From TrEMBL, chain A:
Entry similarity comment: Belongs to the TRAFAC class TrmE-Era-EngA-EngB-Septin-like GTPase superfamily. Septin GTPase family.
Subcellular compartments: Cytoplasm
Domain of life: Eukaryota
Keyword Cell division: yes
Protein name: Septin 5
Signal sequence segment: none
Species in which this protein is naturally found: Gallus gallus (Chicken)
Site description Important for dimerization, residues in chain: 159
From TrEMBL, chain B:
Matches recorded under SUPFAM superfamilies: P-loop containing nucleoside triphosphate hydrolases
One of the Pfam families matching this protein, by short name: Septin
Location(s), subcellular: Cytoplasm
One of the GO biological process terms: cytoskeleton-dependent cytokinesis
Highest taxon in the source lineage: Eukaryota
Molecular function, one GO term: GTP binding
Domain Septin-type G span(s) in chain numbering: 151-424
Organism in which the protein naturally occurs: Gallus gallus (Chicken)
Record's keyword terms, sorted: Cytoplasm, GTP-binding, Nucleotide-binding
Family from the record: Belongs to the TRAFAC class TrmE-Era-EngA-EngB-Septin-like GTPase superfamily. Septin GTPase family.
InterPro entries: G_SEPTIN_dom, P-loop_NTPase, Septin, Septin3
Protein name: Neuronal-specific septin-3
Amino acid sequence: KISSSQFEQKPNHHDHEKQYVGFATLPNQVHRKSVKKGFDFTLMVAGESGLGKSTLVNSLFLTDLYKDRKLLNAEERINQTVEIVKHTVDIEEKGVKLKLTIVDTPGFGDAVNNTECWKPITDYIDQQFEQYFRDESGLNRKNIQDNRVHCCLYFISPFGHGLRPVDVEFMKALHEKVNIVPLIAKADCLIPSEIRKLKERIREEIDKFGIKVYQFPECDSDEDEEFKQQDRELKESAPFAVIGSNTVVEAKGQRVRGRLYPWGIVEGKHSAWKLAWGREGWEGQRWACTAETAAGNSLQHGLD
Amino acid sequence: MEEDVASAFRPPASRLAGPSRIPGPLPRQDGLPGAPTQRSCLWVTLRQGAGGAPWHRPRAPAPVTPVAPCPRLMSGRGGAEVTPVEKMSGTGDPRTGPVENKNEAAMSELVPESRQKPVVPMKPVGINANLLGYIGIDTIIEQMRKKTMKTGFDFNIMVVGQSGLGKSTLVNTLFKSQVSRKSSGWNREEKIPKTVEIKAIGHVIEEGGVKMKLTVIDTPGFGDQINNENCWEPIEKYINEQYEKFLKEEVNIARKKRIPDTRVHCCLYFISPTGHSLRPLDLEFMKHLSKVVNIIPVIAKADTMTLEEKTEFKQRVRKELEVNGIEFYPQKEFDEDLEDKTENDKIRQESMPFAVVGSDKEYQVNGKRVLGRKTPWGIIEVENLTHCEFALLRDFVIRTHLQDLKEVTHNIHYETYRAKRLNDNGGLPPMTSETEENHESNL
């Protein structure tokens, strides 16, 4: 999204001793232009139904994208195939515009026979790459719409003992096409020791099956210590154990987003919400770059 | 456990109107001994429907006639009084009729009738009125209790559900002992099996002098594959194999006095707490299996849901089960009388499916040691009814309906299987190699 760079010769100070060119302002210019242009971000959510995907998406972006959806009952789902459903929403915060597209995959993993249930999803991703490729080779490149999937949040059930066969197959089919971020869904049903063990187990299995999940980029050495610490925590927490909530509950005199149980209240601070949200914020720009690399790779494969 | 044995004969309080509290079988219209309640009526009808086959053992005059299901109607009749007295003398003896014989041997415990409900006349007339002294008939309860304690009884429970839903933990919690092979912690080296396996582990548990031989049948691999088509078939096969085993033993000429009962009395089906609805796989399984075994659906790991989510989910699940015609235990058609019906209706419409949480760890809460799960935001108490419905499930399966589960398995599911088998075999009992030999030697 960097437009052609021009550095302007602008003497900041009327000081002729200083040999000051002035292109250090470039990042600011880029920033300004990007902010004006706005960001596009396409996030895919995948996983069995009932793992809290919609709730989490609403929590993450503080929206109600799924307000009026109709849940299918079991009989209707018997004949359901995996669909791709897109919701787009424009979010603005402190002058920064984000065009967020959520790509949902209802029906994934729900049938009795889930053989190749990820095929509609891989087909969709490939289609977006194909379309971008054509646009890029076309004449009017100024207004390319980037509909490529930048990130896929994959929801792992907390009830299993690790990855299920369908989880492994899905991730293996997609890890070279899209950035996969595995999440442990509905983590409030697990006690801390169970979460630890489950994460270890999932990490082992991801290694064992050679699944390439999204690796957070290393932070630069000149970042401040707090940022580095947060970055470390982020990396060590993967896969993130998340809890979503659309309801506001009263806790200690404050109103917070949370879940009210007979035995206590689950609030934001108990989960990986903050980390996940933070990740979205910082890594927004970086996502795009990594997606390009992934896109490039697949196109390369396609062309060979 | 005493009350469980006694409860089979327990006269409901409302009926203890007359002077004598005789827990006895229902007298029959045609004067034959036996207690054709609605349930055994069904059984009897099956036997008849199969065409008067040779297993119809010689009986006095007529074939069994089904009696009206509401035994309370007996109250006005003078003749009714005689029979209970007669019957009582018959109870402790060698059987007066084939019904009792088979039942006794089959149940592997002394249950004289398939279902005994007391008939206490509202207006005492006839012989029973104003007993001149205490006879001691009610000591039958104590006698039965003693016998049961000596022989003990079998109970076979099967657990079905995707891996990780807490099946083993729940069974351990139910029976307060390590009866189920639990994947200890998460160090399971065993992978998810490629096909559904059936693993039966037996334990003997003793409580209050009563011995129970508990068998827990696990079904690892169910629902875990990518393609789960027909994954219920090995389970259905196993259940039918147990019926077959029992049948073969029954028709054996020199059969054992107490036939070992390996039939599955109860199948706990674990529903994943998605909060949405049942899965297609759940429906398929329950549709196929509710006809061969007692299925009790439970919602696993219910601590995932808040109260509202739980209530909504249960309602939706109940509705889906109803819409799809799935009769889970306690089945409506087998309610014997009004009392059963009201009690079971309440369970069916309000409590089931039970949303449970299992745990084998204890924590200190308010000075008491309770089984629970310690989360960062509070301790979930397994036996606290405001937290989850484990206590309801436990009371239901063990403390009130244990005997009934066995009876329904024997009188309904097994009989259905038996009728079908005998029908297929041209009305003859299946010949085992033993019976063939004996047959030969007898000729």
